[in-house]
Specification:
- This protein is of the alpha/beta class.
- It has 2 domains: about 150 residues, Leucine Aminopeptidase, subunit E, domain 1; about 325 residues, Zn peptidases (Aminopeptidase), CATH 3.40.630.10.
- The chain has 15 helices and 20 strands.
- An 8-stranded mixed β-sheet has the order 8-9-11-10-14-18-15-16, sandwiched between helices. Strands 1, 2, 3, 4, 5, 6 and 7 form a 7-stranded mixed β-sheet that branches. A 3-stranded mixed β-sheet has the order 12-13-17.
- The longest helix is centred in the middle third of the chain and has 26 residues.
- The structure holds ligand BES, manganese (II) ion (MN) and zinc ion.
Length: about 500
């Protein structure tokens, strides 16, 4: 399951390994590395392409054995499409396909020359880091609850990634270190998301945070139980948990990697470990997927882990608002009114709009960390899936420079977000005749009115909200957590620290 990554600059035909990975473009055009092997092999590759066994379409592969003029057991050719069209997504697809193919062979190690390909505007650091993250992603499996844990990846133990020259080695080394840390954060996030609701409760999430705290000295963990939250006055968060046998938790993780005086970034995760909808109960179809309603929390844990591993010189706080949303005799009824930690009162018109109810108290709580930036991450609205599908996370913010930085981090990492407006015209939908606000707007613009609700608790903060309802997990036959938006968040923090590039 674990794979070791290294970098190297050298000639492809001289690589002694179980598998050499080379790119070929459409129209029988060879990449520079493939051309070198073609020369040393007496046009062996060119002859094969001429026979039409590989047309160079992106992600198509052809495995060759005993290629003359090489010292590798195998040569894997992979199609890279048209050279001019090769972009970031194409690069990731090529890396993914090659690892998928190689791991199903007996090859124990491979040397990939894919990072030598030219991607407009992307440097060695980017290409190596992306290669590490994409390769890791292929090898993820969640089999903790299978009685026989068959390992898919039999033999591939070591992947060597090429860099063009020796002077690229330091950037490559850093990229491997960062890529592995991000990959570990993503893996951790995915495994928490995939974990079933009966084994992933608010208390389990708290234990996970405490375990991180034991592993890393720089992390201080504090967990508030329902009594502590009651004393503080977190009436909104508590209202969500009151129908469940599972007690809620507010989990705080403080990483001090910077100076004492550096204002922290605070990440707040929605941690609804199962969302039935409560008394406003959800229909049965695909209800199992509401175990993923804690993916915001999982992304906070995943990002925290990656930052700890990278030892970024900054201060980072993770706050997780964890609860289970259940219907019962003690559950919130539509129309019930609660007082939030901020003092603002909320009329709960729909108990299925529970994410904002736990997040608003966490937002108010975050003020005590005197943060520079606060970002909340939540599987908040089905409307976001309708608007953006599964390709982009929704982004809403009261601070434009922050929104811009997050959008850029999304582009760099390939874990993209798209901004929606947070205009006051939308906010009016939340007015209530009986309380300071209702917890839902009308039918229109559900993602925006949800964010408007949160913004009422973020007035004192430079704040952004990521709605990951569409991006946190895949449905259908490749059902499973994606680990998003850990790549986006870690990239934002790397950029902020001027690390990487
Ligand atoms: N966790 C859901 C949002 C969700 C639904 C995410 C489906 C992914 C897939 C959230 O708690 C919710 O139920 N939101 C409601 C809000 C509505 C009642 C205003 C929704 O989106 O229907
Ligand atoms: Mn809900
Ligand atoms: Zn929910």
């Amino acid at each position: 399951m674990t794979m070791e990554f290294t970098i190297k600059s050298g000639n492809p035909e001289k690589q002694r390994c179980a598998c050499l990975i080379l790119g070929v473009f459409e129209n029988k055009r060879l990449s520079a590395a493939a051309r070198a092997v073609d020369e040393s092999s007496g046009k062996f590759l060119g002859n094969i392409l001429r026979k039409g066994d590989l047309n160079g379409k992106i992600g198509d592969t052809l495995m060759l054995h005993n290629v003359p003029g090489t010292v590798a057991d195998r040569v894997l050719l992979v199609g890279c499409g048209r050279e001019r069209d090769l972009n970031e997504a194409g690069y990731r697809k090529i890396i993914t396909r090659t690892i998928e193919v190689v791991r199903n062979t007996g090859a124990a190690d491979a040397v990939s020359f894919i990072p030598d390909l030219n991607i407009k505007g992307r440097d060695v650091y980017w290409k190596i880091k992306q290669a590490v993250e994409s390769s890791h992603s292929v090898l993820y499996e969640f089999n903790e609850f299978k009685s026989s844990k068959k390992k898919q990846s039999k033999s591939l133990k070591k992947l060597t990634l090429s860099v063009p020259t020796r002077k690229d080695l330091p950037a490559g080394e850093l990229a491997i270190r960062h890529g592995e840390a991000v990959a570990h954060g993503v893996e951790y996030c995915r495994s928490l998301g995939d974990r079933p609701g009966n084994a992933c409760t608010p208390r389990y999430l708290a234990e996970q945070a405490q375990q991180l705290g034991r592993k890393y000295k720089a992390l201080k963990v504090k967990v508030l139980d329902e009594v502590a939250m009651e004393e503080l006055g977190m009436g909104s968060l508590l209202s969500v948990a009151q129908g469940s046998e599972e007690p809620p938790r507010l989990i705080c993780m403080e990483y001090t990697g910077g100076r004492k005086t550096d204002k922290p970034v605070v990440l707040i995760g929605k941690g609804i470990t199962f969302d039935t909808g409560g008394i406003s109960i959800k229909p049965a179809q695909q209800l199992d997927e509401m175990k993923y309603d804690m993916c915001g929390a999982a992304s906070v844990l995943g990002t925290m882990r990656a930052v700890l591993e990278m030892e970024l010189p900054m201060n980072l706080v993770g706050v997780i608002a964890a609860a289970e949303n259940m219907p019962s005799g003690s559950a919130t009824k539509p129309g019930d009114i609660f007082t939030s930690l901020s003092g603002q009162t909320i009329e709960v018109l729909n108990t299925d709009a529970e994410g904002r109810l736990v997040l608003c108290d966490a937002l108010t709580y975050s003020e005590r960390f005197e943060p520079d930036i606060v970002i909340d991450i939540a599987t908040l609205t089905g409307a976001c899936v309708v608007a953006l599908g599964k390709h982009a996370s929704g982004l809403l913010s009261n601070h434009n420079p922050l929104a811009r930085d997050l959008l850029n981090a999304g582009e760099t990492s390939g874990d993209r977000a798209w901004q929606l407006p947070l205009w006051e015209e939308y906010d009016k939908a939340l007015n209530s005749p009986f309380a300071d606000m209702a917890n839902i707007g009308g039918r229109d613009a559900g993602t925006i009115t949800a964010a408007c609700f949160l913004s009422r608790f973020a007035k004192k903060l430079r704040w952004a909200h990521l709605d990951i309802a569409g991006t946190a997990w895949n449905t259908g036959n490749n059902k499973g957590a994606t680990g998003r938006p850990v790549p986006l968040l870690t990239q934002y923090l790397l950029d902020r620290n001027g690390e990487g590039n």
